[in-house]
Design a protein that fits this description.
Elements lengths: L2 E6 L3 E7 L5 E7 L2 H13 L6 E5 L6 H9 L3 E5 L1 H10 L7 H14 L11 H27 L5 H31 L1 H11 L6 H10 L9 H7 L4 E6 L3 E7 L5 H16 L4 H11 L4 H22 L13
Length: 324
C-alpha cells in the first residue's frame, strides 16, 4: 500500500507519496476543506485512493485532516514526533524543511511495521478533552500571574494582577462546572468516572483527565501498553557487560496526564489502608528514592485504571495485591 507522509502547519501541509514500486510524488496544499478536496484528487491521479498516511502529533492543526483521511478510508497514524526525529537522525538527515519532513515521515511509515492506527474518539470524549485541556491552560495562566504578584511590584501593577487573578479563578470555576455538566450529560462518561474514582487517590479531576488524555484506553490490549503511552515506563541503557542501567521515565505522551497521576499518587500513599501505600513503603525500604517510588505508584495507578475500564469492574481495595 502507498505511504503518505504529511508535515502539517497552521496554513498549509506538505505531502510526500511513496508508491509500492518506488515512485515518489510531493506537493503542498492549504490546510482547509478545499485543500483536503484537492488532496483527494491528487491521490486519485496517482492511483493512491487508499494509503497508509501519517503525521506527527504536534498540536491541533492536523485534527481535521486526520478526520478527513479516516472518513475517506485511509489507514491513519498519529506519530510520536520524538521517534520520527530520532529516525531522521539515524538516516543521516541534515536538512530540515517541510517537504523533507514529509518525506521522512513517509520513509518512517515504510520502516515501521508495528504502528497502531489512529482511531477517532467519540464526540463526547473529544469535547471532554477540549474542556480539560482548556482548564489546564487557564490554571497555567493563573499560576503565572500569582508568581508575578509575588515579585512585589508597584501598587498599580498589583491591582491589575489582582483583577486578572480574580477573573482567572472565575474562569476555572466555570470550566469545572462545564466539565461536571458534560459528564452528567453522558451516561457512559458517568460510569467511567465512577469506576476510576473507585481507585485510591483518584478524584474527579484525575478521573476526567485520564478519560480525556487516553480516550481509547479500553482499546489497548495490555496495561503495559497504556503505561508506555503515558510515558511512565523506564528507559533502559545497556551496552556490553559494563553498562546496564534503567533510566528515568520516557515521559512520552501527555504531560498533563502525568501531572494528574502524580497528584493521585501523592494522595494514595498518604492513606495507610490501601495497597498503594504498602507498595510505596516497600519501594522506599528497598532503597529507592521517594520520587522514584511515587513514579512507580503513578505507573501502577494507570495500569489499575486500564483494568477497571477494560473489565468494567470497580477497584476492590480488600483484594488488591500490588507487588513492588
Amino acid at each position: 500500500m502507498p505511504r503518505l507522509g504529511i508535515d502539517i502547519s497552521k496554513l498549509t501541509f506538505d505531502v510526500h507519496l511513496c508508491q509500492p514500486g518506488g515512485g515518489t510524488h510531493s506537493t503542498q496544499f492549504a490546510n482547509n476543506p478545499e485543500g483536503f478536496a484537492l488532496l483527494d484528487s491528487w491521490l486519485s491521479q496517482h492511483r493512491a485512493a487508499k494509503t497508509q498516511a501519517g503525521l506527527e502529533a504536534t498540536g491541533p492543526y492536523g485534527v481535521l485532516l486526520l478526520w478527513h483521511l479516516h472518513t475517506k478510508g485511509h489507514t491513519v497514524y498519529q506519530l510520536n514526533p520524538r521517534r520520527v526525529k530520532d529516525y531522521a537522525r539515524s538516516q543521516g538527515r541534515r536538512v530540515k524543511t517541510d517537504a523533507v519532513d514529509a518525506a521522512v515521515i513517509a520513509a518512517y511509515l515504510r520502516a515501521c511495521e508495528d504502528l497502531k492506527p489512529w482511531q477517532p474518539a467519540s464526540q463526547a470524549l473529544q469535547d471532554l478533552q477540549d474542556l480539560v485541556r482548556r482548564r489546564d491552560q487557564v490554571i497555567i495562566s493563573l499560576n503565572a500571574e500569582r508568581n508575578r504578584k509575588e515579585k512585589g511590584t508597584s501598587k498599580m501593577v498589583v491591582a491589575s494582577l489582582d483583577r486578572l487573578i480574580k477573573n482567572l479563578k472565575a474562569e476555572v470555576s466555570k470550566l469545572d462546572e462545564a466539565i461536571e455538566a458534560h459528564v452528567l450529560k453522558h451516561t457512559a462518561l458517568q460510569k467511567s468516572v465512577r469506576l476510576l474514582r473507585s481507585i485510591d487517590g483518584v478524584g474527579r479531576l484525575v478521573a476526567v483527565t485520564i478519560l480525556a488524555e487516553v480516550p481509547q484506553i479500553s482499546a489497548f490490549e495490555r496495561a503495559r501498553d497504556v503505561a508506555a503511552f503515558a510515558g511512565l515506563t523506564p528507559s533502559l541503557s545497556q551496552s556490553g557487560t559494563s553498562v546496564k542501567r534503567r533510566g528515568a521515565m520516557t515521559k512520552e505522551g501527555s504531560a498533563l496526564l502525568r501531572k494528574m497521576l502524580y497528584m493521585a499518587a501523592l494522595q494514595a500513599v498518604k492513606r495507610t489502608n490501601n495497597a498503594f501505600h504498602s507498595c510505596y513503603n516497600a519501594f522506599v525500604e528497598r532503597g529507592k528514592s521517594k520520587m522514584c517510588a511515587l513514579g512507580a505508584i503513578m505507573h501502577k495507578i494507570i495500569r489499575v485504571a486500564f483494568g477497571v475500564l477494560k473489565h468494567d469492574n470497580p477497584f476492590v481495595k480488600n483484594f488488591a495485591k500490588l507487588e513492588a
